[in-house]
Structures are given as C-alpha cells and as structure tokens.
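G., before I forget:
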Amino acid sequence: MENIVKVLKETKGVSDYRIVETKTESCELFYVLDKLETNRATNIEETVVTIYVKKGKMKGSADITIYKYMSIEDIKKKVEEAVYAAKLALNPTFKLPKPSKKEVVSPKSNLADRPFTDVIGDVVNAVYKANKYKHGWLNSVEFFLNKKMYRLVNSNGIDESYTAFSGEIEVIPTWKKGKEEFELYEMIKFSNLDLNDITRQVKNVLLQAKARAEAKVPNIKEGTKIIISGDSNIPQIIDYFVDDLSYSALYNKVNRCKVGDSVQGEVVTGDKLNIDLVPIVHNSPSSRPFDMDGVVLSKISIIKDGIAKANYGSNQMASYLGIKKPTGMIPNVVVKHGSKSIKEMKKEPYLECIKFSAFQTDPYSGFFGGEVRLGYYFDGEKSYPVTGFAISGNLHELKGTLVFSKEIETLPGYKVPKAVEIKGMKIA
Amino acid sequence: MAFSSFLASRHDVCKKLVNKLLNNYEYVSLLGAHVEGSTIRVTTHLSSIGDTSERQCGFVLKLFNGIIYSEYSFSDITEDTLESIYHDVLCKVSLPSSLTDCHVNVKAMDDEVLVKSFERKLVGKRLSTKEIIKRLTSIKNKSDSLSSKIVQTMTMYSFYEVSKMFISKNKDLTQNYPWCAVLHYPFAREGNKMNGSMNVSSGPSVIKSFEEVEARIEETVKLSVDLLHAEMVEPGEYDIITDPSITGLIAHEAFGHGVEMDMFVKNRALAKDYVGKYVASPIVDMHDGAASCLSVASYFFDDDGVLAQDTTIIKDGILQTGMSDALSALQLGTKPTGNGRRESFARKAYTRMTNTWFARGKDKLDDMIASVKHGYLLCQTDNGMEDPKNWNIQCVCAYGREIIDGKFTGKLVAPVCMTGYVPDLLKSISMVSDDFVVEGFGHCGKGHKEWVTVSDGGPYLKARCKLG
C-alpha cells in the first residue's frame, strides 16, 4: 500500500486516487453424495487503484489492478498509462468523499471466533444431520467459509478497514419416487453461524425435493391468486422498486418515479411498501460499514407508505445530481412486514410458487415470472405439490396489488417478507 | 502480445515447488494464470476506463495424497517465499481424519509427458485507447441521433489477453491468446415503457468486431424503439424458428449442462442413461469443444492441462458422449475432453462447456419461415437455466417476431419464455438452416456461481415448443 501511495503522489497528472485492497482467505470442501472429493484453501490478495485526472471542469478516471509481484517501476508504468487513459475518458468533475466522523465497525460474526479448519467440520455435521431419509438424500454439497479483509484509502485522507466473514453451502437435494429421481438447488448463505438453522434449512430443502417428486401438473381454476415465496424471488420483486430510486436511474433518465411519487401507482389495493436501506443487518453477508468510495453508510428510508422518500447511490452520481450528502451504496434492503400472515393468505384457493428454474424480473418492461419447479396448489379443499408450468405477469400493471406476509426472513442483502400474494398473473 | 513475463519469471520456482511437493503427494500440478486487459465504456452520459472483468493473476496447486484431491490458491511465489508457500500448502490443505475418513474412491491422475507452448495472435492491428474512445463515441452519437426515444446508449469495448502455464511432473505447457468484444446497447423510452436491444460482435480481431457492430447500429436502434410496443405472448404451444443465438441457448442451457460429466459422477444428469440413444431429431448434430471453432472459449489446453478437443455430443440425433474435466473422467474411467475450467485460479475446476453449437443443415431460412402456419421467430438470448436431472427447459428470448401463414405480421412479443421437456423440444426439430453463427460474448455459471466465458450458436432451427 505504501509503495502505491508513494507512486501516486509522485506521478504527474494524478489529481486524486482511491485504493481498495482486498485480502481473501477461504476453506472449502466439495462432497459427492456423502463422500469428500476435494478440499481447497485460498490465500490471495488484490489491490485495485482508481486514478483521477482533472482537465478544466472535467474529471477522468481509470482503474488498474496492482498485484503483489509488481515492483515500484512496474507500478509507476501502470499508473502513468492510467493517467494517459483517464484523460481520454472525461466526465463532469466531482469531489471524492472526505473522512467521516462516524465510527466504522465490521459486521459481527461468530465465524471470527475459531479457525475455519475447526469450524467447517461442525458445518458438515450440521448439514448431514438432516440427511436421514430413506428415499431422499443430498446428492452433492459444497462448503465455503470466507474471510475478506478490505482496506480503502483515498487522496482525501480516508483510510478505513473492515473484515467480513461469510459462509456458503450449495446443496443439491434429491428424492427418488419409483425409478425416477427429482432434484432441487439451494444455496444457503450466512455471515453468522447457526448450526441448528443450517440443519433446519437442509431438512426443509430435502422435503421440498420430496414434494417435487410427488408434484403433478396442476389444473388450475381461472383467477386463482398466486403466492410467491422461497429463494431470492421476493428480493427480485423488491428490486423493481428499489433500483428505480437510485441516483444512477435518475441521472440516466431511466427512472419511473421521483421523490414524492406513489411507487405503486395511483391505485394501491394491496399493501403499501415501506423500504429502508441498512448498512449492517445481522446474518446478511452483504453487510458493510462503508461503500467502495469510502462513504461511511447509515440507514435511510427510501419508500414510506408507498411514497418515494429518497434516492440513493454513489458519491459520483450524487455530485452530478447536486446532492451534497450522498447516501453511498447501502447493501441491505429492509422491507416492513405486510398485512397478512401466510396462514391467512392460504385460507382461500391459491397457487404457491416456491422454486423456479430462474425467477426473472425485468424492471424496464415490467415482465416478471419464470418456470416453476415446485409449487403447491390449494383448490379450496386440498393442497398438493405441483410442477411443470410457468407464471408471468407485468409489474407495471400489478405493482399496486401486492400483499406481503407478516413473516420476515433474512437473505443476503435483504430482510423481507417471506411471501407475497399477487392476483392477475398468467399461468402457462 | 506475448506470454506473461510475470508467469515466465515464476516458471522455474513453480517447477521447484511442484518437485518439492512431489515428496509429499502422489500427484502435483500447478496452474499459473495471468489475464490482463481493459474495458472501455462510452455512454450517453459518462465514460469510463477500467481493467477487464476477466482479470486474474495467481496460482493454484492441485495435489493428491492417495486419499483425496486438495487445492491451494495463492497470489505469488518467489525463491524467497518458496519455503513458506510450501509449508503453507502442507498446513492449509491438511484436514482432520474425521473429515477425510469418508472419501470418493480415486487414484492419481495420468500425467503423460507433454512440453509445448501455444500462441494465437491478434488478427489485424490493435487500436490505441484514443482511437477506441473515438470509435465508441461515434457509435454512441449515431445511436443517440437516430431516434428521440433513445434516452441512453451504452457502448463498450473489452479486450483481454490470456496467459496460462501448467506444470506437473511430466507436463510443461504455456498458452497465450487475445479476445476482443464490442457492444452497442441503445435504450429506448416512451413514457414508462423502456426497452434495450443488444448489438455485439467479438473475436480475435478488434477492427472486425468494430465494423460488425457499426454495420448494425440502425437496425438495433429501430429494434429498441419497436420493442416499446411489444406485447406479451399468449401462452401456448407454437411452431418456432430459433435464430442462431436462441439455437445456442438451447444447445447450452437446455442440453449442454446435462452432458457435463461431473453431473454423471454425481448421478445428477438424465443424459447418463441416454448415451447411444435418440435424444433429438435425426437431423441434429451437436458439438462442444475449445477446438471445435474459434470463439471466446477457444483455448489450447484446459485448466487441468488437457489439450483442447472438438467433441461430438449428438450425431444424427443420437447422444454420443458428454464432456468432462480430468477429475470427473478419472472417477468415470473415461478420457477427459479438455473441459476442466475454473472461474479463476482462486476457484475449483469443474466440467464446463466451451463453444457449444448445433451443426448447420441444408434448409433455407426463407423456406422455414414459409412453412410456419402460426408461430414465432425467436431472437436474442436473454437468459436460461439448466435442469440436467429432470430436463425441464427455461430459456428466455429477448423477443419474438410473429409469423402467420408463412409471413411476418410485424407483431413483436417480448420477452418470450420457452418451457417444456428437453428431448421433446430436440425431437421436434424439423428443419435446420444452412447458416452458422457462434457468438462469443457470454458467461455461464455452474448452479449460480463459477462464471466462465462461453460461446454458443449454430443455424436457425424449426421446432415446436411451449411459450409463455
């Protein structure tokens, strides 16, 4: 870091700079069925430097990556090339963030308490503890425990660091019915280890694989309401509203709403949205105290009772929009619970869609939907697992009808209702 | 344009590390990877210059101790750090016996003698940063000027040069090759309706990539504007004609993932039971391989040090074989096909597709369109997701053009989601055009991670499928 700073200070033409140093350590295990196939460890580092140059009222920038092997001469050559390139990519000028008085605190994690090589055995046991079914099993499981250390330095005097821990478990649950086998996909992500919760989640996906094995193509009554839950399906719907309020969407003139507008349209028959952006959420691996410009982050409300309250985004975009106090890029979206419990949602006929091959939301066309690999259909008398169909709709038209569950769950980058009820989607 | 001087400077010390570790392990190999390049963006509102997203610089060791395979990824090694790296490796990959007691049954990999250097040069000249920005700016200006409905045009130039070095007891390989891509993406708006359309070209020639994109500016802008009025398709089963992009999407997502043979090892692929059987119409041939054509995944050896191949996956509708990385082939008792790929030196190698395509046929596109009573020409890949165990399809096309009684009606539908059962779709292929386009701009994940560059494509296909 010191060598890089020295070169940047000595190189003609560098008006400002930002250095982001990342060191990563990981411990990884790869299982085929319940047998270990490969283990891995990593210990790597990378430094990305953004070089800024001034030209009148314009400012150019270029990113370069500095590796450990590079000599001072190598770094000098790269920086000089970047200065030349930055002068060719000029944008309206802006100022880099200054040091903040706010305290920078790393996200808390109990993964910091013990060496990964000790912890990972417990995680393996927690996963395979749920693997106790005659006709169902875990086909393959991958375990990742990660430690990432970030340090950000800029030419305005910011020098901040934090360390983030995270875990990922990729699970492929399989269930056999007759001669046929059925599988699902699950990625469990966490930043705070809860072994019982891991066992619970693995058991849950195994039972979902069982349901997929038993599932049939539904014969659905016209007008049946759809409930979407599971995986990152609800975050995708929420992003439709959140992305629209970014400084970037506003600056690039691709936003639908401005502050003060009803984000769900003029007629809202469902729940009115309340959305906050929060830097650190317990057990969200996306949590961080400052963004990649060094802006120290705080909680903000962007949507209250369905009305857009604030935009958010990067320091550069804020400057272009004349916003003096940029929010920075806040990593977690927190949505207030809705008006109905999941039990209440399921009182009348419904089609619940839990597992998609890939749930899609296109914020521009409004299209959302996907092929459903597992759902449940309640015809008013009985509920049974279903598969082999697709749902689609347009959020531009249906955004005012969403009814969210009272129950909340934490996912990477999100704390959101567990389920949403939607009327008017097409089923194919 | 030359092999990485950094990797070259570390060759001897890497060889020493491999030899030293051979005292502790039955098999040791080391992959060094150095990918450098730049990405330049010029949009209606901003410009930026950055490193390529493909960038990486470091090493990964693969070790076999007679029980399991282990890997260790690290950033650098010198004569001064050789001892400490050696001890780090021994320490960091060692596991308690409680974890290694239950392991897959494997042996050490074959390590045939092979010493070779490979190089593929850039075709034509390389442009300076100034020339690239001028050319991107020209594309952007023209795009913005063609319609008042274009609110933003994004243009991008990406160039990178791959250097890799593979060292084991008997192998000593190096490779070096470049790749370039140019992208134009005009974004149209009318009220709250917004839509973009992609215009991309990639290859080993910077000039050709620019020329191909520049030739399509008008049609791409027109499409972006026209798509503002696209409707959603009425769900149902239709005759479809797939453009080469969607043909590639079917080859890659619907079928290709299911013949990645690490899925055979895990018994996760239905295709395992279909080798030697019809899985497609008899007029269908499908290939994969880094040596099958020149595109973004055309390397000389894979990340396991196995030479690139052209693998025939489907011949006359019959599944011939899958593709595999070295460790999967070892467990299956087959020969690896040169498909062992890592997202970077910091990630594990898996069986991955490379350039995946359907072979051209004899039909003319006009005849194919004329044969459709009511259906759609499906165009431009949006995304797709595999389901190798159960062969369900989800392929999303950016848009479709309606055909009634053999003629385009002018109606556009967007986006279009193809669903159904893979063999049903492949067996329904009734016409294959004599065109052939493979586009090398995409990335593919394994599950929801491990992103690698891939290409796919082929001719136009006529088939029948559920759309929604």
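Residues 17 and 51 of chain A are 5 Å apart (CA to CA). Chain A has nine helices and 23 strands.

More on Monday.
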